[in-house]
Design a protein that fits this description.
Chain A: It comes from Microvirga flocculans. Chain A: Keywords: ATP-binding, Nucleotide-binding, Translocase, Transport. Chain A: Pfam families: ABC_tran. The complex is a heterodimer of chains A (about 260) and B (about 325). Chain A has about 260 residues and is of the alpha/beta class. Chain A is built from 9 helices and 12 strands. Chain A has a single domain, classed as P-loop containing nucleotide triphosphate hydrolases (Rossmann fold, 3-Layer(aba) Sandwich). In chain A, helix 6 links the parallel strand 7 and strand 8. The relative contact order of chain A is 0.16. Chain B has about 325 residues and is mainly α. In chain B, helix 3 runs parallel beside helix 8. The longest helix of chain B is centred in the first third of the chain and has 35 residues. The chains are: A alpha/beta (about 260), B mainly alpha (about 325). Chains A and B meet through helix 2, strand 6 and helix 3 of A and helix 9 and helix 10 of B.
Chain lengths: ~260, ~325
C-alpha cells in the first residue's frame, strides 16, 4: 500500500517561506481535496509531494522512502503528477500524448506493451475521449485538452495521483465525470490528491479536505469538519453559508468580507 | 501507433545518394556520372584527381554539415518547443565565426588547425549560454529571438572589428569569403577536422531523443515522467554548439538549414520531436548537397557561395513560418 507523507516539510521560494513545517499523511483509498486561497502554497505542496520541488527542510516519503532519494523513473512510476493548465507544444495526436504516460515504464509511444496499450485505452475511455485518438491535441478545446492531459496522468497507472486543478477548465458535466473517475480510482486503492477551488464539488467528492493557509495546514478532515462558515471567513475572507442537506455540504459564497 | 519512419528515411537516403552522385559529377571539368563513380574507386588519371581531391571532400562536407545542422535545428526546436528555434536564432553561427576569425586573425594558426574548430565551438557554446542566461528559462520566443539578435550582432560587430583592424588586405579578403560559407576548395583535411566533432554532436543530440517527446508537455510534466530535463538541455545545447562550431570551422557560416529541414519532414513524419531528428538531419544533408550542386550550376562569373544561397532561400521561409504561426507565437513560452 502506498502512503505518501510529508514530515515537517518547509520550502522557501526566493525569500518567502511558501511551506512552513507541513506534516501530513495521504493514504490509499482516499481522495483528498487540497483547498485554500491563492498563494497558500497548494501547488508548491503538490510539487514537493511529487518530488519536483526539493524540500528546504523536512522530507517527503513514499512508504518510508525519501522521494528525493528515489531514482527519477521509479518515482515517476509511483507518483503521477498533473500540473496546472499544461499545454502541448506540438500538434501531436491524442493517442501519442496519452501514451507518454507510459514513459516511466520504459515504453515508447510507438512501441507500447499489451498492458501499456490497455492502460492508454482505459485512460482515454475514462475521460470520455473515445474517438478523439487521432485528433491533434492542439486542435481541441481547452476542456478537451485538459482531459487528454488527465488521461496521460492516468495512463501511468501509478498508485499515487497528484493533480493540480484538473477540473478548473471543464464544463459541469465533465467536472462530474472526471471527479467520479478520480473517486473510483481512490476506491480501487489509489492515493489521490487534487487541488480544487470549487468547495461544493470538493465537499461532494473528497473523503478528506486539506485546508491550506499561508503555507500551513489550517485544517484537515472530513468536508463536514473542515468547511465551516468561520473557516471560510478566516481562510478565504468571504461571507459564506454552508448548507448541510441530506448528507451533502453545499457552500454558497455571499460576498467578500472587508479586510481585517 | 503512428506511421513508421523507415519509408521516409529510406527515401531521403536514396535522395542523398542521387545528390551525392550529382555532386561528384557536376563541375567545370565535364565528367559523366558513371566515370565519376569509377574514378572514385579506381584510378582514372585526371578524373580521379578531380573527383577524389576536389569534389569528394566537397560532397562529404555538404553531407556532414547538412546532417548536423538539420539534426541540431530539430533538437533545438524540440527542446524549446518552438518551430522557429535554430542555431542561427541564437546567434551561434555568428559567434562561432567570431571565435574562428579571432584564431585566424591572431595569425598564430592557419585555417587548417585544430584550434579553429575549438574556437568556433567555444564561440557557439558561449552565444547559446548567453542567450539562455539573458532570456531565462521560461522566456517567450520574442525575448529569445531578441537576445539571440543581440548576441549575434555583438559577435558580428566583433568580427567586423577584427576585419577592419587587420593590417593584411589578403587576410581580410580570405576572412570575408570564408565567412560567406562555402564548400569550395576544401580538402579531405577539412573533412577529418570536422568529422569527430560532428560525430560527437550527433551522439549528444540523438541520446536526448526519447526525453524530447515528454518535453512536448512542458518541463514540469517531463520531470514528473522521470525525464532528466537539465541533462537533456545540456545534451542538446552542447550538441548544437559543437555541431555548429564544427560546420563554421570548415565551411564558414551556412544558416537556416536547421530551421528549414525539420519543417520539410514534419508533414511526412508528424510532430513527435524525437522522430523528427533523424529525418531532419537527412533532409538537411539533402538540402545542402542540392544547394552546393546548384551554386555550381548557376551561371555567374564567380561561384555563388552556398551560405549566401541558403540564406536567400531560408530567410523567406523563416518569414513564411512567422506569418503562418504569428498568432500562437505571441504567447508560446520557449
Amino acid at each position: 500500500m502506498t502512503r505518501l507523507e510529508a514530515h515537517a516539510l518547509s520550502v522557501d521560494l526566493g525569500n518567502r517561506r511558501v511551506l512552513d513545517r507541513v506534516g501530513l499523511s495521504l493514504v490509499p483509498g482516499r481522495l483528498t481535496a487540497i483547498v485554500g486561497p491563492n498563494g497558500a502554497g497548494k501547488t508548491t505542496l503538490l510539487r514537493a509531494l511529487a518530488g519536483l520541488q526539493p524540500p528546504g527542510e523536512g522530507d517527503v516519503t513514499l512508504d518510508g522512502v525519501s522521494v528525493s532519494r528515489m531514482p527519477a523513473t521509479a518515482c515517476a512510476r509511483s507518483i503521477a503528477y498533473l500540473p496546472q493548465g499544461g499545454g502541448v507544444a506540438w500538434p501531436l495526436p491524442v493517442l501519442s500524448v496519452v501514451a507518454l504516460g507510459r514513459l516511466p515504464h520504459g515504453e515508447r509511444p510507438e512501441a507500447l506493451s499489451g498492458r501499456g496499450r490497455e492502460a492508454v485505452e482505459t485512460a482515454i475511455r475514462s475521460v470520455g475521449l473515445e474517438g478523439f485518438e487521432g485528433r491533434p491535441v492542439t486542435a481541441l478545446s481547452g476542456g478537451e485538452r485538459a482531459r487528454v492531459l488527465l488521461a496521460r496522468a492516468l495512463a501511468t497507472q501509478a498508485p499515487v495521483l497528484l493533480a493540480d486543478e484538473p477540473v478548473a477548465a471543464l464544463d459541469p458535466r465533465h467536472q462530474l465525470i472526471v471527479l467520479d473517475r478520480l473517486k473510483a480510482l481512490a476506491r480501487d486503492g489509489a492515493t489521490v490528491a487534487v487541488i480544487m477551488h470549487d468547495l461544493t464539488l470538493a465537499a461532494r467528492f473528497a473523503d478528506d479536505i486539506l485546508f491550506m493557509q499561508q503555507g500551513r495546514i489550517a485544517a484537515f478532515g472530513s468536508p463536514e469538519e473542515v468547511l465551516t462558515e468561520e473557516r471560510l471567513a478566516s481562510g478565504f475572507g468571504i461571507a459564506a453559508r454552508v448548507l448541510r442537506e441530506a448528507g451533502r455540504v453545499v457552500v454558497v459564497a455571499e460576498g467578500p468580507l472587508p479586510r481585517a | 501507433m503512428s506511421r513508421s519512419p523507415s519509408p521516409l528515411i529510406v527515401g531521403l537516403t536514396l535522395l542523398i545518394a542521387v545528390l551525392a552522385g550529382a555532386s561528384l559529377a557536376i563541375g567545370p571539368a565535364r565528367i559523366p556520372l558513371a566515370t565519376a563513380v569509377e574514378a572514385l574507386v579506381s584510378d582514372r588519371g585526371a578524373a580521379s584527381i578531380v573527383v577524389r581531391e576536389i569534389r569528394l571532400p566537397r560532397t562529404l562536407l555538404a553531407l556532414m554539415t547538412g546532417w548536423i545542422l538539420g539534426l541540431a535545428g530539430a533538437g533545438l526546436q524540440g527542446l524549446l518547443r518552438n518551430p522557429l528555434a535554430d542555431t542561427a536564432v541564437f546567434g551561434a553561427p555568428q559567434a562561432s565565426a567570431f571565435g574562428a576569425v579571432l584564431v585566424i586573425y591572431s595569425g598564430l594558426v592557419g585555417t587548417l588547425s585544430w584550434a579553429l574548430p575549438f574556437a568556433a565551438i567555444a564561440g557557439a557554446l558561449l552565444s547559446i549560454a548567453l542567450v539562455v542566461a539573458v532570456a531565462g528559462r521560461s522566456a517567450t520566443i520574442v525575448v529569445l529571438v531578441l537576445a539571440g539578435l543581440a548576441v549575434g550582432s555583438l559577435a558580428g560587430a566583433g568580427t567586423s572589428l577584427a576585419i577592419s583592424l587587420s593590417p593584411n588586405p589578403f587576410a581580410v579578403t580570405e576572412i570575408v569569403f570564408w565567412l560567406l560559407g562555402s564548400f569550395e576548395d576544401r580538402s579531405m583535411t577539412h573533412v577529418l577536422l570536422a568529422s569527430p566533432f560532428i560525430l560527437l554532436a550527433t551522439i549528444l543530440i540523438l541520446s536526448a531523443a526519447s526525453g524530447l517527446r515528454a518535453l512536448a508537455l512542458g518541463e514540469e510534466t517531463a520531470l514528473s515522467l522521470g525525464v532528466g530535463v537539465a541533462r537533456l538541455r545540456g545534451l542538446i545545447v552542447a550538441g548544437a554548439a559543437i555541431g555548429t562550431g564544427a560546420c563554421v570551422a570548415v565551411a564558414g557560416s551556412i544558416g537556416f538549414v536547421g530551421l528549414v529541414a525539420p519543417h520539410l519532414v514534419r508533414p511526412l513524419i508528424g510532430y513527435d520531436p524525437a522522430r523528427t531528428l533523424v529525418p531532419a538531419g537527412l533532409a538537411g544533408a539533402a538540402l545542402l548537397l542540392a544547394a552546393d550542386c546548384a551554386v555550381r550550376l548557376i551561371p555567374s562569373a564567380g561561384e555563388v557561395k552556398v551560405g549566401v544561397l541558403t540564406a536567400l532561400l531560408g530567410v523567406p521561409f523563416f518569414l513564411w513560418v512567422i506569418a503562418r504561426r504569428k498568432a500562437e507565437l505571441a504567447e508560446t513560452p520557449a
